[in-house]
Sequence to fold (412 residues):
Amino acid sequence: MAKQQTLHCSFCGRSRDEVKILIAGQEGHICENCVEHAQEIIGQELMIYPDAKQGGAANKLTVKKPIEIKKFLDEYVIGQDDAKKILAVAVYNHYKRLNQKVENDVEIEKSNIIMVGKSGTGKTLLAKSIARMLNVPFAIVDATVFTEAGYVGEDVESMLSRLLQACNYDVAAAEKGIVFIDEIDKVARKSDNPSITRDVSGEGVQQGLLKLLEGTEVLVPPQGGRKHPEQKLVKVNTQNILFICGGAFDGVDRIIARRVNTHAIGFSVNKELQEFQQKNLLQFINAVDLKTFGLIPELLGRLPVITYLNPLDAPTLRNILTEPKNALIKQFTRLFEIEGIALSFEPAVFDFMVEKALEYKLGARGLRSISESILTDAMYELPSQKVKTFEVTLEYAQRKFNTSKMSMLKVA
Fold:
């Protein structure tokens, strides 16, 4: 009697005893391990070369009117009405531009935006809130990591890698997306004087951004990082990608003050209006001020819409603590709820926290640090105790804050 032949996988050579499943084909067999590896390879290849049919459903745009977009932003961001309106109009026009039918040779150009506002006024929060409601791919990137091509750091094209990742490498969807470039002021030209050394993380980055912002076909490394000869690159057309830039532009108010006359003299001068204008000089910002700050004219020409964010006053900071959907106090209340503890605050505690945030000039982000310094001990001790309620009084808040390291900060 002839010996029975042992079945084995035609790909890896494992025998029937070494695998769980052996799938039979016409002239061979394949095991479950090889099927898994094949599936991974197919997935990687399809991510780099996505099927046009896959993006069909994702590319359907749900258009919201500017008023609806602003109402949505109001739920997450307090104040900043001017910036919200400009962003709502820009996003709505971006949707319309994507759906337009070119008639009479009239083609709508995209309106890239630049937002100027002090740290902690809500630039990144506005971008994240818009990303939450949009039906187009959205990516937030940091300009500080970019350098001119050929130097240590990331190429500007890698920001499109984030956009590709946001839509699962669907190139058709990415080409209709929105990119928020944060900290754009950090790539300002270091000085107006020509230098022997190259400004590789300043003007060099701005030069690299020019074609991206205007619209061109870019070869993008799918996984980010540097381009190299062995890497497969994806071609992305940036013609329909909307770019929103944001930055603190620390010191630009002094440039504006030299240009704007806020010291009018006479009997009919409104002193209150004059003081308000001096406190919020950013409302007078224009492209000339940004050019003086260090952005090159070619870049400013590709960012036609300039908007500003107001500095946060005490009533606004008070509302930020309690009003938005993801307000800070609601977050801490939820943290204590998970432990079965009902957290409550005396109203005077909120005024104390706002007062300290204004004193240290920390903006909305400072409220988080102040809240942490007050509640850290409670969050450390209470989970181990059988406590059902906890009220933060003004005396408790002052005592905990004064014993924290944060109280030792010098007032700016």
Q: What stands out?
A: Residues 64 and 237 are 25 Å apart (CA to CA).
